[in-house]
Write a structure and sequence with these properties.
Blueprint (H helix, E strand, L loop, with lengths): L5 H17 L17 E10 L7 H6 L4 E8 L11 H7 L7 E7 L23 E6 L11 E8 H13 L4 E2 L6 H11 L8 E2 L2 E2 L1 H10 L9 E4 L16 E5 L4 H6 L4 E8 L14 E4 L8 H7 L7 E7 L1 H9 L5 H7 L4 H5 E7 L6 H10 L8
Helix pairs in contact: 4-5
Length: 380
């Protein structure tokens, strides 16, 4: 070994020893040099969740439309270049299919509204545009997708996908003209990829995106793949329970919203005559999602809170008296509260009620009736 190498090795050993004494960990590998623009470095996942298998005017009116979103995954998370925007690079380094998920919503949290008050979507086609928001990371339907179409991306294509998404971060949302499905299709197109058919009657919708992915012929040589859950109909995966309860999204005070970390709250505003939930719920009750990620649709309530046919599930109702006391606490968030208190704040803030779902009138009765009359069965 040449003599001039020894001092450098000694310095390295001293440096390592110093790090150990200071309790420092070796730095994670970070790539500063940009990859070759044409090198395949990432995957783009187009994901679809269903809340209604076939969306029509009724489903649009109640918000039972499902969700379409995209997620970017880096093939080698340890080599994500720092030249990518920071709001994406730190997520991409976590790795996996859901590393960097992006979805477009009406601004439910009020992130981009002047007064900070959230907005829902407007079903009146003449005034359908409201303030929108790219939820990033969008984890509201994560793991619940019923269809996934995956593309391989070069570095240049990944940059274009990110640039499009960031440009639309505070765009106007319209359930008819620019919604979650339109946004996802735009990201795919910006990356230079061919999106499946994702619209019907001119409106881009999750159920149409599901059908489009189902019919899409993947090109394996280009690194494309797809995954379907539920087969042709996917009827078993969407709103099976029927409870005859009408909800509307309501806002909590800013203090309570911050404390609970932006819960999604839906208030009971009415019942259908045959509703099985009348004995357990009352008009004015507030049903609470504490993670704040769900959509404000009746189908989400049925699927997420009331479960499937004949299944008893928990429903959380916000207690106003305890909520009022929370307002007076000098604690910024629920997470801060739990640092010093072992008790369960969720149990303290809510009471649990049980609701049994009943089977909706549907295919079986219709098929039987059709058979008795000697008529033909309609294709699903």
């Amino acid at each position: 070994m040449p003599k001039n190498k020894a001092p450098k090795d000694d310095k390295k050993e001293k440096g390592k020893k110093g790090q150990e004494e200071a309790g420092e960990q070796p730095e994670k590998k970070v790539r500063f040099a940009e990859p070759d623009p044409n090198a395949v470095v990432a995957k783009l996942h187009l994901l679809v969740d269903l809340e209604s298998r076939h969306v029509g005017l009724r489903e649009l009116a109640s918000g039972d439309v499902g969700h379409t979103w995209v997620s970017l995954e880096w093939n080698k998370p340890d080599e994500v270049p720092v030249t990518l925007p920071g709001n994406h690079s730190h997520l991409l380094r976590q790795g996996g299919k859901y590393a960097d998920p992006m979805g477009f919503w009406p601004d439910l949290e009020g992130v981009h509204t002047p007064d900070g008050v959230g907005v829902g979507y407007e079903e009146n086609i003449l005034k359908s545009y409201v303030q929108g928001h790219m939820r990033h990371p969008d984890r509201g339907h994560e793991g619940e997708e019923k269809a996934t179409l995956t593309y391989s991306l070069t570095y240049k294509e990944a940059q274009k996908a990110i640039a499009y998404a960031d440009k639309k971060a505070a765009a106007q949302y319209s359930v008819y003209f620019y919604n979650c499905t339109t946004f996802a299709r735009g990201v795919v197109s910006a990356a230079g990829k061919s999106a499946p058919s994702m619209a019907k009657a001119g409106i881009a919708l999750p159920d149409a995106a599901y059908d489009g992915i189902r019919k899409y012929k993947v090109n394996a040589e280009k690194g494309e793949s797809k995954e379907m859950t539920g087969g042709e109909n996917a009827e078993d995966l969407v709103n099976q329970a029927y409870i005859g309860v009408k909800f509307q999204q309501v806002a909590l005070s800013q203090k309570l919203q911050a404390f609970l970390e932006k819960p999604n709250v839906l208030q009971v505003v009415g019942f259908e005559e045959s509703s099985p939930a009348k004995a357990q719920l009352a008009i004015g009750d507030k049903v609470v999602f504490f993670n704040g990620h769900r959509s404000n649709s009746e189908a989400t309530i049925r699927r997420g809170l009331f479960g499937k046919v004949n299944q008893d599930v928990d429903v959380y109702i916000l207690k106003e008296d305890i909520a009022a006391r929370v307002e007076q606490l000098d604690i910024p968030t629920l997470r801060d509260y739990l640092k010093n208190r072992p008790d369960d704040i969720v149990a303290a803030l809510v009471e649990q009620k049980q609701v049994s779902a009943i089977r909706p009138p549907g295919k079986e009765s219709k098929k039987k009736k059709s058979k008795e009359k000697g008529g033909k069965k309609k294709a699903a």
